[in-house]
Amino acid sequence: MRTAQIKRDTKETQIDCKLSLDGGEVDIKTGIGFFDHMLTALAFYAGWGLALKVEGDLYVDGHHTVEDTGIVLGQALREALGDKKGIRRFGSAYVPMDEALCFTALDFSNRPFLVFDADMPQPMIGTYDACLTVEFMRALAMNGGITLHQKCFYGANAHHITEGLYKSLGLAVKEAAKIEGTGVVSTKGVL
User: Fold this and answer.
1) How many other CB atoms sit within 10 Å of the CB of residue 130?
2) In degrees, to the nearest 5, what angle opens at C-alpha 71 toward C-alphas 66 and 74?
3) DSSP letter, residue 87
4) 125 with 159: CB under 8 angstroms?
5) pTM of the complete model beyond 0.90
6) Of the candidates 87, 71, 22, the residue with the CA atom closest to the CA atom of residue 48
């Protein structure tokens, strides 16, 4: 089984994460309703089982909760992928969400990098700061060893744009983590 369990306790957040790349129940509680919705969509489209409990300093704002969740989920994803033998490695997906069109391309390269090109027309989506989407993606990429590119080609609603980015991420992860062989997909022989 491709699984991982990560716990992280800081003065700002306490996080318990159980991830299965090969499916299972999804139970997410971060204290930020829209963020729960996005992580549920990510897990669904990636085909994950994900149990995630986050207690953060929401009296400050959502930044630490969202960023630290990205850190933990990135670490769990890296651990669950192991030596990456047999995975496809690359994945990409377009997702249209009403008026918005979003795209994700990624590589489980072990060379973390983020290119994020998605303007958010509204600053808030419920109690979720729209600017935190890039913070989550950066933390996920850096801690997961992922080269991650995301773009919103057009869109007028920050909810639709953000949801398109999370869903396309899930689809791209599912494609890239798919087992297709036995060796590491790299001319170097390792990732």
Assistant:
1) 19
2) 120
3) B
4) yes
5) yes
6) 22
